[in-house]
């Protein structure tokens, strides 16, 4: 799992928890606008964050929640219990998705029909709570059932009625349909897809055309406008009115995956065999079809296919080919030819011809089609008299009972398949093949929802004539299963089942929503977070406390000394020392542990560099390859944070001044792409960060000249400076080498700012540059700044501290070895001339340094950049760990001291800043 | 990339992005008799397609890509 995802998970959980709290608070103060605003902001942030990942379902739900919150915030809707329930449920869903991500360890969850259905469902319920004023339709109907039905029909992809599909298929050319028919007989399956992108989709970066073009193997396609195009002048190019329709052999899983970001804008329906034979063509009134129909029906009934084929061929020859009746004849001939043994479809077609061509003669009640359309019952006439075997009834009844079971075992899909297989066989046996296609649809819906409801609804409608006796048993079971779901009543309205139910009476029976695992409550999940969030101040407090503890611990050696010297109890002193070493070890470990908490990987700063380098390089027209290493190197939070700005500055410098353009590089015989590397590593108790480029390097002569022009060095220095010293001049204040000031770097606030920033966290910076070959900057920083190790020195009867980082060594120099060169005390140490300064002089104390009995002076050799300076002190004492507190207030401006610390014996130690003293 | 406008023809090259839809619309409004040459077009954003569908300029040449052409013809070919 990548760090971004981890952070997302932990932040989202926090947000969900806060949302829950806010909702509960709102319950007592429903009119609190501040709370409402806060709530909206939380949902909004959560949605925004989830947009970083591939989580379409989550975004869908959150988007709906956000919309709803927005209307509430704007005062268009009021806060209600219902609303809170829905929002909480939505958050439970989000939480469930988060759990799934945590388990999977990746943000790309496989498409899951159940999850999408739950998301659609929730989004629908949320949308319903929104006031309807934005809807252009006038929903005047007073019956809430029809209202929700219209609403859900647009929501649920599966729920649109069959008439739609009939209409759509009728526009498919007959030849294509016939071809499809033949391929379906050969065992292929096809889906009809209608994709209507929402009007604002262009603003979401969607390209519906690109989306639909990716679908492979299309058998047919159509592209139209949802509403007539407005006049050219009034056309809004960015209001999407497109409707894509196509027929594909792709499987349902693939299609759902393909459209998983826009499931509510796509209708995917399987094409059944009996959907295809639709006579299409021009109307006519001159052809006498009544006689033909009568004889055709008769022939079909008697199984006299040859004469039926004969008469159909005659009629086909008699009529113009573009007429509808000709189309019907072609279909009829095709049906008879391809499926001579199965006359269901042929009969249905003849019935259809009769309805269309001879409406007066039709005896079919017109309601049959519309009433049954929703459940997918075709317009076939029910065979009046079929002797039903009682075993068959038994089979149907058993299936009904199985479907009525209310448990949800893992093997539910298998059970559904088994039931469907039994029903398929039973209805084929009953000669009701035309009902099988709707059965398949019902099966698919059931599998999708992992709930037997669609199959049950199908069986209730189609099996009713055969199940008269079994009805009572079913009703009994029904009442059992319907009762345990009263708390889901709010989400009922949006569940697609309402639409599939054919009559209001059935609606009540089928109103039980599909049980979904995403409906579970927050408290059901036990995903224990692996990390906790702590306020930084709490850690700082701990840090201070351990610091004080270390100071207190340091008091023990003094106590031991007192016990021995003042009270003369040597044994006690020894025991105290033993105890001290134990406490010392524990305190050290504790300090380490607390420091660990504050550690951050340098990637915290590094992660912004790829973008920075890319953008900057583009702006400058340079080609740069960035190499980063050791991003996991850790250091104290303060150190890492203080690094951010200097590093950005250094990188900009490298890109702007260091690296050449591709042409310049080619001319210099280098590869055209410049290389910039940033490497971090730990070196004992320090973090080292190296920024190197293979650019043009720094020309020491240019630096010398510039420095001289700017008055930073004088003429003598100009001659004297070594190349390395000259290069280091870039750190001097007010130095900028850029010939022209660009908006990237070179404003005169250059490397001196960087050096100061690094020095502030006790870091050092080192610059190496080879002219023409590249530059390397090396930053060395302490792992932590909390506890410093200082050496205590004595001078003029006082004790001072000097940071051990600055101390190179301590030596004793005999008075005889100290010479005066131009009033400056110097000595020769290890073959080098080293200047000496008395601490008392530096501090303005009017006392001479005291030498020891052998006339030797104690010298503290400190490192200042690359020079060494000897500081004469009276004596060097032990080193201690202290918590350095910077001087505050008026004392803060005294540069000579780095800060103060409390010593174990209660005295205050002033820590000298050698650089500030000079 | 994008479009080249000639007297009464617009040649669409490679990929026509969503931002171009407005430009295309304006140009087609100014040139009601214009023709569109799509032979070099590899893809055009649905917003552009909408413009073409609404204004119905004559298509001088269809794209090489058969998939794209099939869809465009479904929308634009009468």
Radius of gyration of chain A: 43 Å
Would you tell me the overall average pLDDT of chain B? Answer: 86
State the helical fraction of chain A. 40-55%
Estimate percent helicity of chain B: 40-55%
How far is the N terminus from the C terminus of chain B? 28 Å
Which strand order do you get reading across the main beta sheet of chain A?
14-18-19-17-16-15
Number of helices of chain B: 3
Averaged pLDDT of chain A, please? 76
Estimate the global geometry of chain B from the Cα principal axes.
Answer: globular
- Uncertain runs of chain A: 133-162, 361-387, 481-517, 519-523, 737-749
Order of helices and strands of chain B: EEHEEHEH
Count the strands of chain B? 5
* Amount of beta strand of chain B: 25-35%
User: What percentage of amino acids of chain A are in beta strands?
Assistant: 15-25%
Largest interface: A-B, 24 and 25 residues
Give a structural overview.
The complex is a heterodimer of chains A (918) and B (78). Helices cover 47% and strands 16% of the residues of chain A. Chain A has 34 helices and 22 strands. In chain A, the strands form five sheets. In chain A, strands 14-18-19-17-16-15 form a six-stranded mixed β-sheet. A five-stranded mixed β-sheet of chain A has the order 6-8-9-11-10. A five-stranded mixed β-sheet of chain A has the order 20-12-13-22-21. In chain A, β18 (856-864) and β19 (867-873) form a beta hairpin. The longest helix of chain A is centred in the middle third of the chain and has 30 residues, at 536-565. Chain A starts with a helix and ends with a helix. Chain B has helices at residues 20-30, 46-55, 66-76, and strands at 2-5, 9-16, 35-37, 41-44, 58-61. Chain B is 41% helix and 29% strand. The N and C termini of chain B lie far apart (28 Å). In chain B, α1 (20-30) links the parallel β2 and β3 (35-37). Chain A binds chain B through residues 197, 202, 207-210, 212-213, 218, 221-225, 229-230, 232-233, 235, 237-238, 240-242, and chain B through 18, 21-22, 24-25, 28-29, 43-51, 53-55, 67-68, 70-71, 74-75.
């Amino acid at each position: 799992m990548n760090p971004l995802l981890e952070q997302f998970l932990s932040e989202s959980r926090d947000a969900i928890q806060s949302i829950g709290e806010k909702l509960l608070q709102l319950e007592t103060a429903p009119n609190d606008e501040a709370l409402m605003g806060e709530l909206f902001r939380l949902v909004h942030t959560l949605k925004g964050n989830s947009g970083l990942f591939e989580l379409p379902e989550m975004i869908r739900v959150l988007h709906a929640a956000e919309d709803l919150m927005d209307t509430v915030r704007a005062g268009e809707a009021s806060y209600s219990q219902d609303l809170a329930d829905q929002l909480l449920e939505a958050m439970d869903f989000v939480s469930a998705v988060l759990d799934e991500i945590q388990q999977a360890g990746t943000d790309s969850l496989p498409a899951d029909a159940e999850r999408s259905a739950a998301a659609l469902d929730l989004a629908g319920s949320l949308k319903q709570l929104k006031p309807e004023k934005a809807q252009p339709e006038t929903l005047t109907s007073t019956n809430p059932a029809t209202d929700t039905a219209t609403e859900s029909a647009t929501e649920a992809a599966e729920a649109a009625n069959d008439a739609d599909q009939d209409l759509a298929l009728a526009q498919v050319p007959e030849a294509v349909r016939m071809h499809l028919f033949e391929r379906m007989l050969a065992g292929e399956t096809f889906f009809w897809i209608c994709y209507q992108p929402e009007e604002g989709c262009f603003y979401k970066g969607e390209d519906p055309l690109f989306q639909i073009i990716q679908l492979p193997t299309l058998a047919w396609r159509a592209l139209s406008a949802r509403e007539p195009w407005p006049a050219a002048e009034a056309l809004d190019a960015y209001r999407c009115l497109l409707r894509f329709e196509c027929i594909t052999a792709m499987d349902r899983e693939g299609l759902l995956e393909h459209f998983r970001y826009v499931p509510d804008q796509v209708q995917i329906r399987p094409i059944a065999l009996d959907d295809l034979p639709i006579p299409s063509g021009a109307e006519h009134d001159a052809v006498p079809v009544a006689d033909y129909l009568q004889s055709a029906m008769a022939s079909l009934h008697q199984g006299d296919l040859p004469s039926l084929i004969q008469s159909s061929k005659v009629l086909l020859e008699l009529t113009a080919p573009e007429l509808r009746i000709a189309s019907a004849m072609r279909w009829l001939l095709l049906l008879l030819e391809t499926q001579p043994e199965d006359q269901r479809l042929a009969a249905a077609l003849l019935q259809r011809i009769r309805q269309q061509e001879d409406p007066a003669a039709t005896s079919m009640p017109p309601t049959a089609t519309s009433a049954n359309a929703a459940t997918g019952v075709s317009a076939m006439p029910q065979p009046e008299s079929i002797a039903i075997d009682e075993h068959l009834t038994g089979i149907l009844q058993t299936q009904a009972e199985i479907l009525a079971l209310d448990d949800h075992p893992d093997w539910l899909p298998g059970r559904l398949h088994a039931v469907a297989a039994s029903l398929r066989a039973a209805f084929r046996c009953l000669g009701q093949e035309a009902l099988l296609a709707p059965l398949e649809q019902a099966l698919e819906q059931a599998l999708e929802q992992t709930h037997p409801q669609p199959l049950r609804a199908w069986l209730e409608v189609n099996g009713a004539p055969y199940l008269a006796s079994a009805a009572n048993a079913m009703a009994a079971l029904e009442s059992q299963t319907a009762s345990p779901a009263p708390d889901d009543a709010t989400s009922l309205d949006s569940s697609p089942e309402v639409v599939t139910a054919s009559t209001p009476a059935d609606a009540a029976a089928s109103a039980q929503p599909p049980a979904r695992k995403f409906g579970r409550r927050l408290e059901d999940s036990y995903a224990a977070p692996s990390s906790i969030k702590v306020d930084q101040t709490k850690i700082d407090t701990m840090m201070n406390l351990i610091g004080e503890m270390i100071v207190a611990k340091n008091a023990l050696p003094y106590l031991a000394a007192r016990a021995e010297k003042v009270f003369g109890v040597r044994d006690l002193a020894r025991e105290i020392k033993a105890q001290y070493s134990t406490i010392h070890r524990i305190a050290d470990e504790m300090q380490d542990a607390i420091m660990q908490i504050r550690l951050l990987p340098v990637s915290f700063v590094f992660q912004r560099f790829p973008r920075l380098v890319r953008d900057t390089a583009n702006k400058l027209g340079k080609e740069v390859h960035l190499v980063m290493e050791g991003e996991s190197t850790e250091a104290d939070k303060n150190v890492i944070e203080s690094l951010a700005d200097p590093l950005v500055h250094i990188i900009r410098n490298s890109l702007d001044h260091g690296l050449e353009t591709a042409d310049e590089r080619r001319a210099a015989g280098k590869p055209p792409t410049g290389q910039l590397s940033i490497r971090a590593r730990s070196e004992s108790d320090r973090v080292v960060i190296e920024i190197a480029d293979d650019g043009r390097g720094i020309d020491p002569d240019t630096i010398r000249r510039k420095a001289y022009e700017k008055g930073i060095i004088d003429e003598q220095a100009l001659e004297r400076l070594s190349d390395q010293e000259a290069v280091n001049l870039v750190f001097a204040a007010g130095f900028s080498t850029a010939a022209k000031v660009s908006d990237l770097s070179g404003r005169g606030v250059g490397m001196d700012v960087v050096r100061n920033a690094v020095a502030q966290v006790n870091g050092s910076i080192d610059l190496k540059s080879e002219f023409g070959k590249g530059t390397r900057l090396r930053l060395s920083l302490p792992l932590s700044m909390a506890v410093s190790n200082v050496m205590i020195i004595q001078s003029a009867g006082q004790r001072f501290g000097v940071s051990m980082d600055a101390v190179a060594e301590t030596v004793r120099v005999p008075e005889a070895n100290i010479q005066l060169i131009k009033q400056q005390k110097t000595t020769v140490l290890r073959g080098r001339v080293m200047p000496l300064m008395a601490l008392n002089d530096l501090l303005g104390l009017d006392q001479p340094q005291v030498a020891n009995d052998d006339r030797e002076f104690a010298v503290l050799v400190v490192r200042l950049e690359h020079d060494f300076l000897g500081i004469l002190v009276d004596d060097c004492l032990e080193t201690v760990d202290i918590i350095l507190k910077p001087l505050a207030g008026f004392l803060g401006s005294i540069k000579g001291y780095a800060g103060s610390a409390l010593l174990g014996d209660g005295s205050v130690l002033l820590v000298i800043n050698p650089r500030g003293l000079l | 990339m994008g479009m080249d406008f000639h007297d009464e023809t617009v040649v669409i090259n490679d990929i026509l992005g969503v931002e171009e839809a407005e430009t295309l619309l304006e140009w087609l409004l100014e040139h009601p008799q214009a023709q569109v040459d799509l032979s070099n077009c590899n893809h055009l954003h649905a917003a552009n397609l909408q413009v073409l569908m609404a204004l119905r300029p004559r298509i001088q040449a269809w794209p090489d890509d058969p998939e794209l052409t099939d869809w465009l013809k479904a929308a634009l070919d009468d």
